[in-house]
Structures
1.
Amino acid sequence: MAIMNKKSKVSDEIPSSSMADIAFLLLIFFLVTTVFPRDSGLRVVLPEEAEEVEVSQRNVLHLQIQPNGVVVVRYGDSEDEQQMTPSAIEAIWRSEVAQNPNLIAAVKTHPDAAHQHMIAVLDALQLAGAERISLQLLEET
Amino acid sequence: MGLKDGGFERKSKASDEIPSSSMADIAFLLLIFFMVTTVFRNERERPIDWPSAAATEQIDEKRDNILYVWLERNGDIYINDRLVPMDDVAAIVGPVWLESGQRLIISLRADSQVPYRFVDLVQEQLKRSGAVYVVFATDLERRMTAERR
């Protein structure tokens, strides 16, 4: 009799009280592990097709990117050129734009230069806060 | 006497706990709702080597308004999983640009080693199609924060 009593105390239903915890755990697991595609990059706005603006040479900073990644910097109307790495451009731009707020960066990339070299220069300019940037193809002379 | 006891008994029958038996149903409903409403973009990623930049910023735009243009190392262009000749890019992007109400953002996902001549050609095509908002897709370059300021 005592044995019978003990048996009847065990419930014959599946315990469902922890079901909510299981479901929420699944929910949170999927929320956390969902990876959204990365949409990040460097923003630029291309000029409209017919847009050709004449700019005074005094307001242009020429940045010529060579195939090996070296950047030749030349101030608009002067003749002297400086060679530097893309990372040095940030400081150059900051000091130049302080003297001339209308300065435009003319980034001229050699056709054979890797995309990464242009990105490095664009990166330096955007880090320095440059907004007037012109992307061009370097014409071979 | 009997009436007083009956009153107490009736009150004590109401449980003072929040019923939790339907909690599982609620949770599963939420789970299924999110599974059903999640829209996956069925476009495949092309195997490219991402360029990196420290000034990389997140693009806050609806995904419908972003068009990916893949530019591989050999100059091949892929839009929506299809190989597109360079000269047809403008013809393909143009209608999408107008359909989006001139809000379309082109995410140009170019390989870091692709020669710039191809990037320039793509830009010319995009100018012709009218889509002027371009993002050069990059990975965030981790640098010392001291170096950035």
Note: The beta strands of chain B are 52-53, 57-58, 66-71, 77-79, 82-84, 105-110, 133-137, 139-140.
2.
Amino acid sequence: MHYNAGDTAWVLVSAALVLFMTPGLAFFYGGMVRSKNVLGMLMQNFATMAVVSLIWVFGAYSLAFGPDWGGFGLVGTLHFFGLAHSSQPVPGYTGAISQHIPPLAFVVFQMTFAIITPALITGSIADRVRFGPFLLFVALWSVLVYAPIAHWAFDPHGWLYRMGVEDFAGGTVVEINAGAAGLAIATVVGRRRGWPRSPMPPHNVPLTLMGAGILWFGWFGFNAGSALGANNLAAHAFINTNTAGAAGLLGWIAVEKLRGGKSTTLGAVSGAVAGLVAITPSCGFVDAVGAGVIGVAAGVVCSLAVSAKFRLGVDDSLDVGGVHLIGGVVGTLLIGLLGTMATNGSNGFFYGGGLGLLGRQGLAVLASGAFSFAMTWVIAKAIDKSVGLRMAPEDEFEGMDTALHAESAYDFGGSFLRSLGGGSMSNAQ
Amino acid sequence: MKLIVAIIKPFKLEDVRNALTKAGVVGMTVSEVQGYGRQSGHTEVYRGAEYQTSFVPKLKIELVVHDEISAEVVEAIVEAARTEKIGDGKVWVLGVEDLVRVRTGERGADAV
């Protein structure tokens, strides 16, 4: 087997870039929660990296990208369990889409997507979920929800892929999936105590901005890496990613100004993330104009969508539905209008391609969103009924950091009195 | 002896301090406090959700002065702290029954 050194290097580097997004996400979210829960949020994200890394090697990768089970395009078999047969080419990638990278490079690149997707869900259930049951949720969800949807849309044997659905880097698999799952699990665990009447503002917006910067940086690996080669298509995806993030930032703060408010820093980075979300499925199928339109559209639509949770009464605490579900839907659908063969793939409606592509994209939105919501609801409900997903009220009041992890994030104030308070230290071992 | 307590806007501290020095006051105690009067709090906005903060940061100045200069000191504080905008604060004066300087044990007016 001949591997292309440039392609391989780019995909391996991209895998590292995408893995770095999950700590970035942890800080993006961590800044938005109250100070008593920031370690709990960081811990959920870092632990998700660990759990999914193992689940991916032992099962989930094979279910997503293994030989198709029964020819239905629904799920793979366990042929690659434990990374067995890893010298065999990844099934389905033949002809024009043949891979020129070692299959293990593909395994680790896709693993980083499988990690960040459940990590995104933590934003919906901030401040109120027990740690152990959360890990159980991530493990089950990776196998029962992520792996099948990845097979549908990313694997050339998947039913959505075969139908001609275009999802370059995960509008359905990552964004819509995580957003719908976030709404489902938030429905199961219920609202934070006091929401929405008690104010729960972000405790550290600079932390959130730092996390957003890391996300933007890592997103180049996410999107341009999905070309699976160091080539012209990767460059298209790279510049489109940046264009959409920039347009999304300006779109969100424009809405803030037009609604009579001030331009907020949280709004700016939320808009950038919304634009980056929406360009994820589309970065390899649109041109520069398309990327700009998609970015602005996502920034505007998501800034309006985040208030829907108050009307729905669902405490989607950090707006995973409003940003990732809605942004993913915007990006996935707009391929149907703005896709152009000049970049890659099929022509959308505005480029003379008819409405067929838009219809297929719409079906992919519905299928991935509905499956994710339903399956996630069942998994969360099962865990809640058996071992219990929700923290005890007194633990939730105290905060995750001390109640779940026996640590506190900050020791700025009160330390002088604490030093006089008769405390002592002992070796817990 | 009078205890003068003043609540002022934090950015006015330097002006008030200079005025007090001119008026012959040699010491004061300052603390950071929060509260509200006719000035309501401020609004913060995160992703479109508005959070009302009802308590506004202020500084509280406390000083003990001789009876004779009390009115003059109050006037100095008021002049220095005034912006003529809502939230400028308040000054009040209380009689002091006794006073001790810890270092020397001096009492009453000698300890001022």
Note: The longest helix of chain A spans residues 356-386.
3.
Amino acid sequence: MFQIPDFKELQRLVDDAGEAELRRALQATHVGINGLAALLSPAAEPLLSELAARSAEITAQRFGNTIQIYAPLYLSNFCVNSCAYCGFSAENKISRRMLTLEEAEQESMILHDREINHLLLVSGEAPARLGVDYLEELARRLRDKFASITIEVQPLETDEYRRLFEAGITGVAVYQETYDRGIYTDVHLAGKKCDFDYRLEVPARVAAAGMREVGIGALLGLADWRLEGLALGMHAAWLRKNYWQTSLTVSFPRLRPATGEFEPLVAVSERNLSQLLFGLRIFDPDVGLVLSTREEARYRDGMIGLAPTRYSAGSCTAPGGYSQPELEGEQFSVGDHRTITEVCLDIKRRGCDPVRKDWDSTFQVG
Amino acid sequence: MLTIAGKTFRSRLFGGTGKFSSSLVMKDALEASGCEMVTVALRRIDLKNPEDDIMSMLDRQRYLFLPNTSGARDAGEAVRLAHLARASGGGNWLKLEVTPDPRTLLPDPVETLKAAEELVKDDFIVLPYINADPILALRLQDVGTAAIMPLGSPIGTNQGILTLPQIEIIIEQARVPVVVDAGLGAPSHAAQAMEIGADAVLVNTAIAVAGDPVRMARAFAQAVEAGRTAFEAGLGKQSRRAEASSPQVGLEFLR
């Protein structure tokens, strides 16, 4: 199983990374973990535009001048976990709602009509209400209407992932939130999510179940972003070695204002986030990098072509929010309020093709 | 002229549709390339939608449509995708790609052979994308594929023909056309493929992500033509040392 080194050890890797290692990482075809440490180190900050140039070159070479478009569909904001940073956290007094299968279908048809082909189903973690049966039935109802359907829900068991794969789910996103064990314990106050090691094993289970794609990620604003980046790189590299048939994506959601009193524990600037994106791209040319509507339109526009390969658009983070935009109960407030069409137009304006469809449901047996 | 499965082509450059900054740039680049066969990833298009951004830009009178199964992990997926594409009006031609490793997108030889056999029986015109393995090429032509498409180097790498010795053997042995596919990063690479006797080349990334895709497409077209002409004209052999233009070999001993 994947083991994450202690953050003190990761810190040493960053501290030891010198100018020479950094220069090598900017030239090399294969950048190892020491190279990634150098790219994420403070020493790389003055060279941010060089990192950007190298990252842009690799991104164009591997993915072309394209950005894949997806949209999230929030199914439920019920959650049994108590997580200090999250609007869905169990003790928060928000209006809770779980969509019925029919309502979820209706919401998805709104996105379908907006020409969304890549759908991400999201929910809080409340398995007794929203379990694998619900997801399986929903996947079967939606599979012919979407090119790919991924989920971001509570961790499941391998045979459950297998069932969902057969029902038409193509991939699973499950974020560690933070790879710093100590901080993980501090911010996960109650619920099954408290178990750091259990969660760390989930991406491997997803891959073992045959899913096409697994998404890993860290919530930025909890622990040192450089070390989170290094941990993500290690996790991705381990998954590649052990599950070579599985595609990987990485997300770096920065903490957004949400219900609750939580303030980010560490500041992560746009320059920091950019360095992280460039570093990961140079480290792993093939990884899908996701930049969601948590970030502002100005920043997302600026990053087009530099590293990210997937943008969400027109997102609403409250269950039922597409049919009732006035609805409350969102996970976080988004930073980019443009419509899907507007996002796509701005991508085009920057010389990139907003790709609406890059998968096909017929890959999987129905 | 190049003939594949009874159809003739004036151009020996085949195009692709991925990675372009817009479908308009793609259309202009394909036109400038003069190509008559274009491959399209089935995963990328919606054959049932007449307004599909790629398909609506491709004049199917002008280009032979060569759908590909990129993304398929095994023979079963590739075969299923092929049948669905044909049922939706995708035609009989198929670029068979079985690429279980999403990172390198290198083709799986075992699954490719299995899928090819099945698809040929189902009356598809199969052009399999393979690693430059001469024996696999022979096995594929034996099961009835219409051409062989060995890679020059891993897709998207622009490294040119790193598999030169194997490609030369494939060309020497093949009864069906050999199309060098993947890794051709510069017109000189394409010219080299043609000079050694490849029947055609397929180029996508190098054109799509070029500073000016339209001019790059034209450059590739010229290189392919030059390389082919050189091949037909008969290239001199290469040598590691200088040789006199009019060699004198002492044959005085002959009676």
Note: The radius of gyration of chain A is 19 Å.
